[in-house]
Amino acid sequence: MARNLPPPLALRSFEAAARHLNFTRAAEELHVTQAAISHQVKVLEEHLGVRLFVRLTRKLLLTEEGKALMAVVGDAFDRIAETVERFGMGDNVGTNVVSLPSYFASQWLSPRLTRFWRQHPNIDLRLHLSNEPVNFKQSDVDVAVNWGQGDWPGATSELLMRMKLTPVCSQILLEGTHPLDTPSDLKHFTLLHETNYDGWTQWLAAVGVHDVDPRVGSTIDDPNVVLHAAIEGQGVALGGDTLLVADLATGQLVRPFELSVETGFSYYIVYPTGARQRPKVKPFCDWLHAEVETPYSA
Questions:
Q1: How many domains are contained in the chain?
Q2: CATH code at 259?
Q3: pLDDT score for 236
Q4: Is residue 138 assigned to a domain?
Q5: Could you tell me if 243 and 111 lie in one domain?
Q6: pLDDT tens digits, residue range 148-159?
Q7: Contact criterion met (CB below 8 Å) for 178 and 185
Q8: Better-scored residue on pLDDT, 194 or 78
Q9: Residue 268 vs residues 100, 134, 288: alpha-carbon distances, Å
Q10: pTM value?
Q11: Is position 1 within any domain?
């Protein structure tokens, strides 16, 4: 029995336009004109007898019928792309483009990468360091690790590791004039801050300390530099306990007191909806989860 399918070119044009919600970007992706995309969408709408888009002055929205069709067409195109990808690569699955916060990449991922490559020699990784959430529609990123609360529109997220903040400093700092035995003693020390993240206010309030001004100290853009400043004895920093295991084990950093505070933020694996099973994405995601459960070893 013959299938009553719409014209393939019209479906492809619709899928690109629905993914971008923009005819111009769809045209750029398919290397055609905007008029060609508009024409093919009209052909599809006439074939189906329904409207697929609501065309506003500066905005394009999917109708309910458009959303229903995109859910099926988008998944089908993803499956076709994955299958074709396997045909062309043989044993080489390809390059997995990964977006990562610089602090996470430096403190946690980098020391473990050798194990990934030993286990998956057929997957190349290209690491893109960014502290901003990824717009998967406008980038070539396959999967990301984000710091947040797990809600990124247009993407699927899965919890990787919960994070607690704990103060850390160098042993040299503890051997100075002022003792650092309780959180209130922090008033005598320089607090090291990360730009755009008010962790000290949250931490001091959580442990019930009100005689330390959380706004004073040194503010640094890069969290890796904040940590390095703490190692050099320039002040006390806040760090994620899970990411500090190596520095604490080697003695580069010490915890002046055993107090960790839940932040409400965690690290999540994030990817375009439906991309989890891709042959270069799934092994990396599974490996990240396995590494979280693996005890630290120098």
A1: 3
A2: 3.40.190.10
A3: 96
A4: yes
A5: no
A6: 888 888 789 999
A7: yes
A8: 194
A9: 10, 12, 10
A10: 0.67
A11: no
Q: Which token pair is 21? A: 């919600």
Please check the confidence at residue 5 and state whether its pLDDT lies above 90. Answer: no
- Of residues 86 and 179, more confidence is placed in 179
Do residue 37 and residue 183 come from a single domain?
no
- Is 167 domain-assigned? yes
28 pLDDT more than 80: yes
Query: What pLDDT is stored for residue 298 in this prediction?
Result: 58
